[in-house]
Design goal:
Layout lengths: L13 H20 L3 E11 L8 E11 L3 E11 L8 E12 L26
Antiparallel strand pairs: 1-4, 2-3, 3-4
Length: about 130
């Protein structure tokens, strides 16, 4: 994160973190759907700790549920200082719902989740 992403308090603007969460969730949903998936709702967004300029963020997204055309994705964001060894802190979490769409923007079916944390085609989830 850079100083260009900061808010009036000198920490990273929540909207910047929200975009990272949405991007990671969209990648996980799109991989599972094997094509485009769009955000339908942000079911939950929780900011747990401030992010500072220079922090290195990691964003992990995982499918929690797959319905007929929709998918629920949970996301976890962690931060670590760029210039010092130390603990990794969980800074935000999110839960979003996506719908897979075809070329015309119409909802289309998605594969079911299996019990091993992979999609129906055997691909590992993001």
């Amino acid at each position: 994160m850079s100083e260009h992403d900061t808010n009036l308090y000198g920490t990273i603007h929540g909207g910047v973190v929200m975009k990272l969460i949405d991007d990671a969730a969209a990648a996980a949903a799109g991989r599972h759907a094997d094509g485009p998936a769009v955000t339908v709702s942000v079911d939950r967004m929780t900011f747990l700790a401030p992010v500072r300029a220079g922090d290195l963020l990691s964003v992990h997204a995982e499918l929690e549920r797959a319905g007929r055309t929709s998918m629920t994705v949970v996301v976890r964001v962690t931060a670590e200082r760029w210039n010092a060894a130390g603990p990794v802190a969980e800074v935000a979490t999110g839960r979003l719902t996506f719908v897979a769409i075809d070329a015309e923007g119409t909802p289309r079916p998605v594969p079911a989740l299996d019990d091993g944390g992979t999609n129906a085609r055997g691909g590992q989830l993001a």
